[in-house]
Design brief:
Largest sheet: 6 strands, parallel
Helix content: 40-55%
Radius of gyration: 20 Å
Strand content: 5-15%
Distance between the termini: 41 Å
Bound molecules: nicotinamide-adenine-dinucleotide, zinc ion
Oligomer: single chain
Strand order of the largest sheet: 1-9-6-4-2-3
């Protein structure tokens, strides 16, 4: 038996206001005055001087504002990388992503593609990256995806939505400052928070479960339940705990896998552009057959926070469109195997999957 040997984020700073220390953290990593730091920042912060005035730029450093309305694509990553190569005097000293999962994934992918030849679509998969990425820092402003801690960056490419999973993907440094999540809209808070909850359920009920994943998964699940089901926490406590739940949820799937909800929501996202958090919620709501206890608790959380999920998003799809979605979803073997076992193809037939999608 060969066990996987995984890297982890080597440095993390935690605490409200820790964002103020960013300059001290990155300054020693500056290679030269010609090698800039590139800050990829969610454009929701564009006119927010409370945040932007604290981004420590010097010399040739650049802030690039990016919309998170669409999830990252391989084309977008390649364009950003080309632009940086053409317009900076030297290879950047570092890439710093400030935002939710979308921006964090972009920062990881750009840092990898600056040192690896070709197009990012060629690296979607497992362990295809050859050269170490440049120094990259993740600063989450929205909690739940676990992208700040994971070994993947999920990109939509021409053929599939799939991560660049590699030892070079994890951030070199993460800054966990829960104050940065202050203005997240309530619905988004719920959707991305539920991404974390669903990571826990899929990991804890999966066939790949082991004591490593279980310990992180149980911790994250407990945090999610206190955040989303009780009235015990202050706003600050809830923000800090969700940040840590996201971290633990991400760690839990590092050594296991996600499951049915993720496999299905990848299909929705590829065909309809449905975003990860809300897509997982739409799907998970109909998965009591696979996750009876998890779905029951999810519905209670939804009710407590008055969340109304969209309905009928697959109502008008053609057979061809269903097939595209079904093919994307069924191509994710490890997710299905984790959820349903080695013989998953006998359980989750294309017909069965179509029936499930038709409910959504
Ligand atoms: P997101 O980054 O797409 O952001 C959702 C919305 O919230 C956007 O409109 C954004 O502008 C807004 N937002 C973010 N921070 C805010 C703040 N502080 N105040 C106000 N608005 C704010 O959402 P997400 O759910 O964090 O990320 C989804 C992405 O993460 C997907 O692309 C998904 O594939 C990826 N993902 C990656 C991993 C991984 O391990 N790499 C895991 C899960 C999901
Ligand atoms: Zn997820």
């Amino acid at each position: 038996m060969n066990y996987r040997n995984f890297p982890m984020v080597p440095k993390v700073i935690f605490g409200r206001g820790s964002f103020n220390q960013l300059n001290d953290i990155i300054a020693p990593k500056r290679i030269s005055i010609n090698a800039p730091f590139i800050f990829l920042v969610d454009d929701v912060f564009k006119n927010n001087t409370w945040l932007t005035s604290r981004i420590p730029t010097a010399y040739e450093d650049k802030i690039i504002y990016i919309s998170a309305n669409q999830e990252p694509t391989t084309v977008q990553v390649d364009a950003l990388v080309e632009d940086l190569i053409l317009n900076t005097k030297a290879l950047p000293s570092g890439i710093i992503g400030i935002g939710g999962g979308t921006i964090l994934d972009l920062a990881k992918a750009v840092s990898i593609m600056l040192t690896n030849k070709g197009e990012s679509k060629d690296y979607q998969g497992w362990d295809l990256v050859k050269n170490p990425a440049i120094y990259h820092v993740g600063i989450p402003t929205l909690s739940g995806t676990g992208a700040e801690v994971s070994r993947t960056t999920v990109l939509t490419g021409p053929e599939r939505k799939l991560g660049i999973n590699s030892d070079f993907t994890p951030f070199d440094q993460v800054v966990l400052d829960s104050e940065l999540t202050n203005n997240v809209p309530k619905d988004q808070w719920f959707y991305t928070g539920m991404d974390c909850y669903i990571h826990c359920v899929e990991s804890l009920t999966g066939n790949y479960l082991n004591a490593f994943s279980q310990s992180y998964g149980e911790m994250a699940l407990q945090l999610c339940e206190s955040i989303f089901l009780t009235n015990d926490l202050s706003t600050i406590e809830a923000q800090e705990k969700l940040m840590m739940a996201s971290w633990h949820g991400g760690m839990s799937i590092a050594y296991s896998q996600v499951g049915v909800a993720h496999a299905m929501s990848y299909g929705l996202s590829y065909l309809l552009g449905t975003k990860h958090g809300i897509g997982n919620c739409i799907v998970f709501d109909h998965l009591e057959e696979f996750y009876p206890e998890g779905v029951k608790v999810f519905k209670a959380m939804k009710k407590k926070h008055n969340i109304i999920l969209p309905k009928g998003i697959c109502a008008n799809l053609s057979d061809r469109e269903f097939d595209i979605m079904i093919n994307i979803s069924l191509s994710l073997d490890p997710l299905w195997e984790n959820a349903l076992g080695k013989n998953w193809k006998k359980i989750m037939t294309p017909k069965k999957l179509k029936q499930l999608y038709q409910k959504m």
